[in-house]
Design brief:
alpha/beta; TIM Barrel; 7-stranded parallel sheet
């Protein structure tokens, strides 16, 4: 199955770039915004130190302000439209009046056509849910939930301070309000084998989610994980990672939009895998392997 034949492409995955291009008839780029939030796993309400894999910037190392992001990205895409993506830390973890002010400040920017909000599954209160419903009535939006893994030992080892049950409950609340959800999973967490990672993907895809993000685990300087697992390497080679991702793509329903199938980090902070900054090489390798195997997103579900 080919999902996108435009611009000479023959993409065998349902990508967010294709989805947004078809919906808005334009190139749409996400602005990685740092909204100045913290996290219940940092301030002591749930834990301290954050999730082991998280950087000091709350996994938003390339996030900044809307104006700075537009200035940077408009040089590459001068006619693009933008999604304001609240990325750093937990972006529903604040008083609802503060959330409303920051969300609408982004949405009222003349070059922004929608909003994406990344958060933890244990930070969707009733008040937050009402605000999200309010925004959705008039604006394009989606919520990103960090599941990372369905396995309880992994969650404990990584100091997530939430469980797959928390994720399931938050997802159900959001889906009941018809709020689109993008689920985050991390591939290559310590102690997890191929079957365990694919089980997490199957669980995420068992509900009617809008999208999925597959992150390759990067060991980052300054993260708690770099102290606890200083020699850890999630994948020994690009080929090993590509092989897993292709297997994952085959079990993901074709209607689920893939927002990410890799995961890069700034070279200045990256420890391992040493090659993971080569994002274009990894993506090209995945698309090449899909073509060579004559496979595509959801193929295994057709059998």
């Amino acid at each position: 199955m080919i999902f996108d034949r435009s611009d000479g492409q023959q993409l065998r995955v349902n990508t967010i770039s294709t989805y947004l291009k078809n919906r808005f008839d334009s190139k749409v780029v996400k602005l990685s915004i740092d909204g100045g939030f913290t996290c219940p796993n940092r301030d002591g309400s749930k834990g301290t130190g954050g999730c082991l894999f998280c950087s000091a910037a709350g996994s938003g190392d390339m996030a900044s302000t809307i104006e700075d992001q537009i200035c940077l990205l408009s040089q590459k895409w001068p006619n693009a439209k933008y999604i304001a993506y609240f990325q750093s830390h937990t972006n529903t973890y604040a008083p609802v009046d503060e959330l409303r002010q920051k969300y609408y400040a982004a949405l009222n920017h003349p070059q922004v056509l929608g909003i994406a909000i990344a958060t933890r599954p244990d930070c969707i209160s009733g008040e937050v849910l009402e605000l999200l419903c309010e925004i959705k009535k008039k604006h394009f939006m989606w919520i990103e939930l960090g599941l990372q893994s369905i396995h309880s030992k992994t969650a404990s080892d990584m100091n997530l301070c939430y469980t797959v049950s928390d994720y399931d409950k938050a997802l159900d609340k959001l889906l009941q309000k018809n709020i689109p959800v993008v689920t985050h999973l991390i591939l290559g967490l310590p102690g997890e084998n191929r079957e365990m990672m694919l089980d997490s993907i199957s669980h995420a895809c068992s509900k009617d989610i809008f999208g999925l993000k597959l992150h390759m685990l990067n060991l980052i300087k300054g993260s708690p994980m770099a102290q606890k697992y200083p020699d850890y390497v999630s994948f020994g080679s690009i080929d090993e990672y590509i092989d897993l991702v292709v297997a994952a793509i085959e079990i993901i329903p074709p209607e689920i939009v893939l927002h990410r199938i890799s995961g890069d980090a700034p070279r200045s902070t990256l420890i391992a895998p040493a090659w993971s900054y080569r994002k274009r090489t990894i993506l090209n390798g995945i698309h090449k392997e899909l073509k060579e195997r004559n496979t595509w997103q959801g193929k295994s579900l057709e059998l």
